[in-house]
């Protein structure tokens, strides 16, 4: 895969260095049957170091997941070899089935069909809490 010549796909750029792998896992990219390139520790004028993920497939990525891992990331949609759209990422107010509650006594650990829902409780500190038991999401 020539990572610079994606025809139809997605480039997630400006990911804080070290967060690329976490984002890769949370987006489930290891299950994708398409070429995915992870480039880590790229020199960036803006960030010093950054990670980049390039997906050579016209799939939809979950912007909430990206916003949870790094709201400073940018998502570029490539169609026919051209930049079609640049998506602005925001820290989501709510996360549904992105992360799991770690509290063993939480209702989500025995009620398998329940959605795992976290709500942003502190924007400054990027803190999310389980809506059922108030347990804090583990830090990034
Ligand atoms: Zn919980």
Overall, the morphology is globular
Main sheet properties? 5 strands, antiparallel
Number of strand elements: 8
- Give the strand line-up of the largest sheet: 2-3-1-4-5
Regions with little confidence, pLDDT below 50 for 5+ residues:
none
Nearest-integer average pLDDT: 92
> What would you call the structural class?
mainly beta
Distance between the termini: 30 Å
**Secondary-structure element order, as H and E?**
EHEEHEEEHEE
Any idea what the radius of gyration is? 16 Å
Ligand inventory reads:
zinc ion
Structure description:
This protein is 13% helix and 36% strand. The protein has 3 helices and 8 strands. Strand 7 and strand 8 form a beta hairpin. It binds zinc ion. The site of zinc ion has 8 residues, from loops.
In short:
This protein is mainly beta.
Secondary structure layout:
Blueprint lengths: L8 E8 L3 H7 L9 E9 L3 E8 L7 H7 L4 E6 L2 E6 L6 E3 L10 H4 L6 E6 L4 E4 L10
Antiparallel strand pairs: 1-3, 1-4, 2-3, 4-5, 6-7, 7-8
Bound molecules: zinc ion.
List keywords for this structure.
140 residues; mainly beta; 3-stranded antiparallel β-sheet; 3 helices; 8 strands; 36% strand; binds zinc ion
